[in-house]
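INPUT
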Amino acid sequence: MHNDNIIEVSGLTRKFGNFTAVDHITFEVKRGEIFGFLGANGAGKTTAIRMLTGLLIPSTGQATVAGFDVFTQTESIKKNIGYMSQKFSLYSDLTVVENIRFYGGIYGLRSRDIRRKTDELLERLGLADVRNRLIDDLPLGWKQKLAFSTAVIHEPAIVFMDEPTGGVDPITRRQFWDLIYEASDRGTTIFVTTHYMDEAEYCDRVTIMVDGRIDALDTPGGLKKKYGAEDIDEVFVKLARGGVA
Amino acid sequence: MSIDGRYPMRTIRFIIQKEFLQIFRNRLMLAFILLAPVIQLVILAYAATFEIRNIDLFVVDQDKSPESRALIDRFSASENFRIIGYSDVESAGDHALLSNDAVMILNLPPHTGRNLVRDGRAPVSLRLDAVDGFSANIASQYFLQIIQSHNEELGSMQWKADSPAHIGITVSRWYNPELNYQSYMVPGILVLLITVIGGFLSGMNVVREKEIGTIEQLNVTPISKTQFIIGKLTPFMILALVMFSFGLLLARFWFEVPFEGSLGLIYLIAATYLLVVLGLGLLVSTITHTQQQAIFITWFVFVIFILLSGLFTPIDSMPDWAQYLTWANPIAWFIDIIRRVMLTGADLRDIWVSYFVLMTYGILLIGAAIARYRKSAA
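OUTPUT
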């Protein structure tokens, strides 16, 4: 079966006890697109992304990622994705190079490739001078860029990012999105959650999640038009107040 | 660019490399890991002994005869006792005991010498501070030995002609002829040290990655659960064996503990035992959520195992139920094996049952750690 959807989600639900964190969400992500997953804190974004990356088994519903089932084929999914979690994921007591080598190694890259990729990546990020510094000693923005580059070191088909720009200054955020575009240009599908509504404008399509449900899914322009809003922020406020046009 | 999952050993190698980098980066921790066992071994080996020397004895001699002095000389000649005072008043003894100056009072009542010569028997009394029941028991044993040997000498001197035939006992002490407590204690303490260090380090390792959040990043890679656990186990195994080697060198050249058995066998057993300790640590680490929880659980389990290990109290004198519990205690098995191999030169044929138990235990715990490690939350 060939189709253009790299992620297909239908009625996906996750309950924790009586609390429904994700409530029957349905959407598709096309191969190669930058897909924005918007929502307030606690809307269920992280729970959704954890189900799609195989870290959390859903309660009910269906979903495939890169053609693999999220209930039964989580380990196959993991071979095809990169993930940058909300929690910082590099080892702060290891150096920049040691972190890259470790993650390259456990993704099965050859040592020769790891060395080449390390040099390329540090060159691109402008971090060549700090290659032997401990992660602990780097500013947050640098760490985040490095975490992203490490998450895609094995050139996965899809990369999932959970609030990658949280707590980062506007300039670094802009640079961060340049990295995302570069990965997208190389053909990687981008799945990114954020609560910065301005970042929605950088995405090909966005969905807005409110209280575990998906209330809207369209291009940023389409959403603004549909809700008669100036920007995505306004769309979000209208949705969050429960007013559906 | 190629992603290759066909070499599982390669993935494990990267985990081991990373763990060692982290261990060596933490210099303070490394110094602690390597030095603490040496210091503890030296301190514990000298401190932990069942032998009691210099028991503070107060003598109340109300008789002051040559016979009473002969007995007192026996005590002052013994290394186990130290006479801290004499008096001819009984209350002085009570005072010494109450003020904690003495732990034992030897009381020789008036006419002891006369009664001994006339009747062939004279009562003497012993009072002792028995707050520490264990020590008091040993002290009273020493006391009785001295009285007994004194009696034998008196008997052979004065009533040689008509003394009844008596059974002479000759004791031969095998394996530890000088009753050297260090030969007995050092191997056991060595076991404790690698247990505590290995158990705590592995117990805190995985849960630490949970706390920091790096575990999520590992869980989203194609790394297998077995690779993960083996990668975590190996560095601590190597580290613990290095520590163990330090301990063995000290045991051999400082404490001069005899090594009757084969060194290869000692290492084989130690490595097998470490599977148990590290397996337990990693299992705890995979089921807990914070380092605090991990420390408390590891501590709880190890304290029970150590107290029931036979190191500080002989297993044979435990109540039946506790003796059955020691069957489930890997520390007891290992201490038993290591003492037998080191001190009696036992080989694998002699200890295969114990070895088999340890091996089974290790495989079960490692298996449980792998099974309980979750890459996907249910």
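end of record. The beta strands of chain A are 5-16, 19-30, 34-39, 60-65, 68-69, 81-84, 158-162, 189-194, 205-210, 213-218.
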